[in-house]
Amino acid sequence: MNDQSHKWIGKRTIRPDGADKVTGRAAYAADATMPGMVWGKVLRSPHPHAVIKSIDTSKAEALPGVKAVATAADFVDFPVDTPVPLGIQDMRWMSRNMLAKEKVLFHGHPIAAVAATSEEIAAEACALIEVDYDVLPFAIEIDDALAKDAPILHDFIEFEGRKSNIAGTLEHKLGDVEAGFAEADVIVERSFTTKPVHQGYIETHACVVSVAPDDRTTIWSSSQGQFMVRAMTAYLTGIPQSHIKAIPAEIGGGFGGKTIVYLEPVATILSKKSGRPVKMVMTREEVMRATGPTSGSKSTVKIGAKKDGTIVAGQGTFYLQAGCLPGSPIRGAAGCAFAPYDIKNVHSFGYDVVSNRSKVAAYRAPGAPIGAFAVECVLDEVAEKLGMDPLKLRLKNAAKEGTKAAHGPTFPRIGYAETVEEALNSTHYKTPLTGKYQGRGVASGFWFNAGGESSAQVNITEDGNVVVTTGHPDIGGSRASIANITAELLGIDYDQVSVQIGDTATIGYSNLTGGSRVLFASAMVVTESTEQVIEQLKGRAAKIWGIDPSQVVWENGEARPMGEHSANFPSMSLEELAAKANATGGPIGAGSQSNTVGAEGGFATHVCDVEVDVDLGIVRVIRYTCFQDVGRAIHPSYVEGQLQGGMAQGIGWALNEEYIYDKNGRVDNPGFLDYRMPVCSDLPMLDCGIIEIPNPKHPQGVRGVGEVPLVPGPAAVRNAVYDALGIRIDDLPLSPPSVLAAIDANSRQAAE
Amino acid sequence: MAKIHVSTTINGEPTEFLCDPADTVLDTLRDTLGLTGSKEGCGSGDCGACSITIDGRLVCSCLVLAAEADGHEIETIEGMAGSDHLHPLQRKFLETAALQCGICTPGFLMAAKSLLEKNPDPTETEVRYWLAGNLCRCTGYDKIVRAVMETAAEMREGAR
Ligand code: FES
Ligand code: FES
């Protein structure tokens, strides 16, 4: 949409933090140092599953250069029988993930930490810590963990009256699926598996922490939420939140993986014990072994439709790996899977399965791509059986305003059908494929999106410019969008607005950069604050002119008298009013804090073209377009950036990314060489079809944008590979060996 | 272990430092010299976030020992802009939003600069293969490739 009524909203402005980021000045967590700083390192478990009988740190402590050693005993204890929820996390599991307590639960699980004058000495000291283990059998894959005689990770977890590795379930039910399937002319049922994939942020986890003798604590770290860092550190160390200042460093990617802590509380205790600031930086190998990823999964989906294409029933069962502690995103899988469709009878079921792998962390629309993969692949087959275009099948069943979704809500005005229509009408979809082994696939996806708590402060500087402070780390250009909105509302030049991310002592509580919520929520509080500032400015002008504030309008960055006074006074600019601020009542500025609601879901439809090298099994994506309802693109470039990044990650998930375990329960590919994320030469240009159906519940019409673009990807790629080869591969990734195996199996079958 | 004395030129400045035999150029730049613009994404030559040039050749600074830099000329991201102007690539990256989180950006800029010095008129495929040693998880590379090609076109235009 090209809305001419806006001066800054919808403009591709230069981000306020841009120059710092292209010159190497921007300070990420690992770039920080403090005087007297020492280095922290973590000792990690060599076993995937073992009881810790004892830990002897005396030799490590005696090593010259060692300043402190910490184990779980130095932290607040969270007994397993008392839940302590914090957001979607539980401190019982957070504490045990940060440092193993009773047991080590995966290879690479942290056991103890050392601070020393150099990283080398800290590592040497870690090797001197003696841990006595009782090694236990382990389970890595879902089937191993669910087997009858599976090793049980946690004695306190029971399912259906027995000790189990199923840590939780979730069910969504709408209508009566049995009755629905009875009406169906076509029924397709299929089972799928997906591998865990890592968020793959290029910046590893890092922090510098300084604890003064009175426990006043400063944390400089890379996270998706400085307030989350403060809260979790406070919980785990016992230091009150008021004593902790968590400073958000620039963040080098997160994608959900930095919504929890690994290092900050450990560095805090090491700093407290040593009396020195402590820096900790993970290696890439540590990131791959012990942080994230998202769940691997196993699912079965059954969909029934009538001859005319009406979907009458959908049923899904989704088993998701939680890693070693409870908490996989079953809500995303079971809740989002069928959400794009208006289906009267839906039953979806999620199982949270623990096994001896690193605890999963959020990854872009957590769980949703897993659910969508199964549903969208089955829909492809339903369309084929009906002889219907797969997009037309989706359009016929598209959820719209008033549709009741199985996960609860009744949708307001949404733009799902528009994404399918745009895809159908696109030149991409209309352009015929040319090569023998080329294929085209489509898929759709949904993500809940989130609102939640945000705070903002808008201050007018003495020289008539504006400083906006918000509380959300800027991962993908959100500062530029906030500046666009502020400049628009005030009617001033974009360059007059500076946007800062406050630390926990500077700005009010602001929830995570996650859930596609940042621009949605921060735009709301920034709008409220700016509107208050405008009221103040009108009041100041009224005071100067000696008229009633209701007789003043704010327009184009100026206060103007109106009505009977309109000719009496020349209008006053922001600069003039700022210069007179002290004489008219003092500093001009306003803050707003709120628990925002009305985020509403986001929808996307993807079209993917591939070409398969049938000799090598290599799938190349040759054209890709994402059609998404973004509400309103405040800064179109960064909206496109979210879409393109999501497309690339979906392609990686579909084609190459996976965790490979050896027979000893260790990750065999803990680096970027063997964990193969898409590189520049793997991808084509990634096209965006931005659709703007403004969110009626937001002042600028914003909908969350960041997560949906990952959701349809894996299914779109897999459906394209089917179109190219005529073979339905149901297990991700479609890496060269698996594609070759599928081609071979297919030709053997054909020969028989 | 005894430290090694190294004399280099960094971004045009004669620079001396002491290093351990096992230190990489990246360690030295970041931890000894405070030049933190070069980033460590992997430490194994797989992400390109640490890209610099040594005597004009693009390298991963995490794979070069600091002691090997003796007598050589190093260029890092900190040397790319002038005091009052950005390099055309830096400007274009900002104009086209070719960065999101920005952690990969110094490496991409160093790599792209090195490409354009060798090949002022690269095709899209040449850009993609040259930059294949630099990982970006945020952008899907689309805007990066466009930024490099547009800069190349503008620089060719400017050189005429
Ligand atoms: S840090 Fe040097 S290539 Fe990744
Ligand atoms: S912009 Fe984040 S990794 Fe490239």
Find the structural class of chain B using helix and strand composition.
Answer: alpha+beta
Q: Work out the helix count of chain B.
A: 5
CATH third-tier fold name of the largest domain in chain A: Aldehyde Oxidoreductase, domain 4
The oligomerization state is heterodimer
Query: What percent strand of chain B?
Result: 15-25%
Q: What ions, cofactors and ligands are bound? A: FE2/S2 (inorganic) cluster
Number of domains of chain B: 2
CATH class assignment of the largest domain in chain B? Alpha Beta
Q: What can you tell me about this protein's structure?
A:
The complex is a heterodimer of chains A (752) and B (160). Chain A is α+β, with helices and mostly antiparallel strands and 752 residues long. Chain A has three domains: 32-136 and 203-252 and 258-290, Aldehyde oxidase/xanthine dehydrogenase, a/b hammerhead (Aldehyde Oxidoreductase, domain 3), CATH 3.90.1170; 297-449 and 600-751, Aldehyde oxidase/xanthine dehydrogenase, molybdopterin binding domain (Aldehyde Oxidoreductase, domain 4), CATH 3.30.365; 451-594, Aldehyde oxidase/xanthine dehydrogenase, molybdopterin binding domain (Aldehyde Oxidoreductase, domain 4), CATH 3.30.365. Helices cover 29% and strands 25% of the residues of chain A. Chain A contains 21 helices and 30 strands. Chain A has a seven-stranded mixed β-sheet with strand order 3-7-1-16-13-14-15, with helices on both faces. In chain A, α19 (636-655) links the parallel β29 (618-629) and β30. In chain A, α11 (368-386) runs parallel beside α20, α12 (390-396) runs antiparallel to α13 (416-425) and α19 packs across α20 (713-725). Chain A starts with 17 loop residues before the first helix and ends with a helix. The model of chain A has no long low-confidence stretch (mean pLDDT 97). By secondary structure, chain B is α+β, with helices and mostly antiparallel strands. Chain B has two domains: 4-79, Ubiquitin-like (UB roll) (Roll), CATH 3.10.20.30; 88-159, [2Fe-2S]-binding domain (DNA polymerase, domain 1), CATH 1.10.150.120. In chain B, 34% of the residues lie in helices and 16% in strands. Chain B is built from five helices and five strands; from the N terminus they run ββαβββαααα. A five-stranded mixed β-sheet of chain B has the order 2-1-5-3-4, sandwiched between helices. In chain B, a hairpin with a 2-residue loop joins β3 and β4 (57-60). The longest helix of chain B is centred in the last third of the chain and has 18 residues, at 142-159. In chain B, 55% of the residues are buried. The model of chain B has no long low-confidence stretch (mean pLDDT 97). Chains A and B meet through α1 and α19 of A and α2, α3, α4 and α5 of B. One FE2/S2 (inorganic) cluster binds at residues 40-43, 45-50, 60, 62 of chain B.
